[in-house]
What does this fold into?
Amino acid sequence: MGQSLKFLIPLGLFGVLVALLFFGLTTDPSKVPSPLIGKPAPEFSLPALGDPARTVSHTDLLGKVTLLNVWASWCHSCRAEHTQLMRLARELKEVQILGLNWKDTEADAQQMLRTSGNPYRVSAFDPENQAGINWGVYGAPETFLVDGEGRICFKKIGPVEPGTWETEMAPTIDLTTKKCKESRT
Amino acid sequence: MIPELGHFALILALGLALIQASVPLAGSYSGNRNWMNMARPLAWGQFIFAGIAFALLLQAFLTDDFSVVYVASNSNTLMPTLYKVSAVWGAHEGSLLLWATFLAAWGAAVATLSRNLPLQVVARVLAVMGMVGIGFLLFMLLTSNPFDRIFPMPLEGRDLNPLLQDFGLAVHPPLLYMGYVGFSVAFAFAIAALLGGKLDASWARWSRPWTTTAWIFLTLGIALGSWWAYYELGWGGWWFWDPVENASFMPWLAGTALMHSLAVTEKRGAFKSWTVLLAITAFSLSLLGTFLVRSGVLTSVHAFATDPARGAFILLFLCLVIGGSLALYAWRAPAVSGGGRFDLLSRESLLLSNNLLLTLLTAFILLGTLAPLIYEAMGWGKISVGFPWFNTMFVAVTPFLALLMGIGPWTRWKQDDVGRLGRALWVPFVVAGLAFLLTVVFMPLLGDGWFLVPIGIGLAVWLLASHVLVVRDRLRHKTSPGAFFSDLAGNGRSFYGMVLAHLGVAMFIVGATMVSNFGQEKDVRMSPGDAQEVAGYRFVFQGVRNERGPNYIAARGHFQVFEGDRQIAELWPEKRNYFASQKPMTEASIDWGFTRDLYVSLGEPLDGGDWALRLYYKPYVRWIWLGAVLMALGGLLAITDRRYRLARKAATLPAGATAIRS
It folds into this structure.
């Protein structure tokens, strides 16, 4: 009996796989709302990428509308979204883009910015996932839209694509008052 | 009207597939020869109608029939004809049609080339392939009809994704799909064998050439995809461990294990149930790949437009095909397992180790690919498993595989002894050791590379030396100078195919090791007239001019590359803007060579006429793809082996006899 039971193992493993795929199919990974939306941005204080003497912290978020982009040089999709960030940096004068360089090495990260251009006013360097944990970063890339009072209006999981700003992000913020719109929580 | 004919042809193909899946199978149980005899013409009929549908979709693309949604979404009047052809399989619906057409083509090939098989086996194999065909045709007709119309008809199409407007894309998916679908034959043979309860050497012999043929296509398809990513994406990388790349690599690994395991089953009658399981696994992983690409479960650069209905359909289909076959396996395999006995040191045990390592690697990649899903399901949050994790796993397993690969061809079936192997293998071992030491001394590297490079080079030399000597050993009793050629014309082809494929692995190892550790990359800002030096080559930037292509405008840079004072190349990297989609695309320019590529990619325009540029030096990068080509050639040599030809010749006799009778 034990001998013939082992022939059931592949079927059992496949059952687990199907359960997993069914789960994946019923949840859209990019639409899980962040518990942080509408809440003040978590505090953090990290050295700036390429300039360890300078500190980047949550106070850099105040007074301006900010896109905080979590990125890493090893992350395929981050490279894909890079051109979009470059475009937004050129076109959106009233929005500052900050980077959170996540689980990366300084050399690789700077290399990528030299290669593809630097859309960030400054990038916080977080190789140990210190700020990442508080911000609930699941993976790179993620992009948070933060209003002038330091509240998170929107979180994009996955790469910023053409139209992401216009259709998903911009409707959640009032650029003149620099405040999140309340309708979207 | 013509698109409706295409739609109708698909429905007819589905009807034929339904009969093909049921009547011959029923005949194989009741012993009704007429029913079983229907399998072959039905397989041909399914192929003809799927082929007609495919030809009609092609016709819609060539005539810019934008009343068809699929054409309007993926083509454009300005597109060159070649890309109108490749656009047929450039998106979800059409690539599915290509899948179904290839599946039917493999079915027709089995129907034609199976004259030497017992009718019962043919009926069952084709019935199983018919079932798979039903799944794909239904999927297309219910959720993804490529012939859907749009009204009012748009005046201009939306254009094919510019990334895909390239020669590489014209050829890469067809090869890959031929490989994926080809494993359905090995799968069908395995299922037929389980149904019949007869897993013997002849079963393995029938499966072998089909498996190897599918594997050749998959090898070339993956290599071409890697080459395409290298020159088209502009990052100089040749493998990204993207979910979709993994989806093609996993069936390849399982298929490689299957080829080796089939050899044992054919020659020694061992590993029967394991071989069947691998045949099921290889095809299941091909289907899983289809699911991952089309369901939107994982995000990927390759992902087709996602639609939950499609995902649900494929998942159901996966459950039926894979779940059904694994249940059949659990039921029937206990009866057929067992077989030849062998010692701890024997060719069987080495091939078993090879199988285990390949399976381990497949499991790692599957785990890494599904990790984001596992984490989410377990409520552990989300992660993305990066490039480094996959690389670590790959580099941890493959050296052992290469080490065994050098020993395998020397070992004897059933039992061998350490002393004999030692006498045979000390020379390659010493040569490889020398190569290791020389690499340590003459290619000093700091960081991770310091031990990886010597190991890589040492293993490649080990494989080369071991295989050169094993060829010499085979020919040692044949003194005439033409012995090699007469051996090649005689029974030696599968042996030489094996040698060639293993040398391809050695070549791949050299390429991957060298380019990963000695590749140089420089990201620079340059003004026209500036020069930059990379790995001893001087790149002189001559500026950028605007040029117009058929359906895009391009900024075209001009570089001269000097080695010393001698100009060795001119490079013209481009940055294109396609009219219809407004997507920017980089076209890298590459001066290719046997031992190095020089690669320039145009970045962003900066102030004052300056450009951000990427300059690469890629040593031995071609060896990666040449290695894959050698592997494929080895496979080709193996399937032309005399044993398979003899089997076919012997079969022509009874077929002729029946012809006389009727």
Observations:
- Residues 236 and 310 of chain B are 34 Å apart (CA to CA).
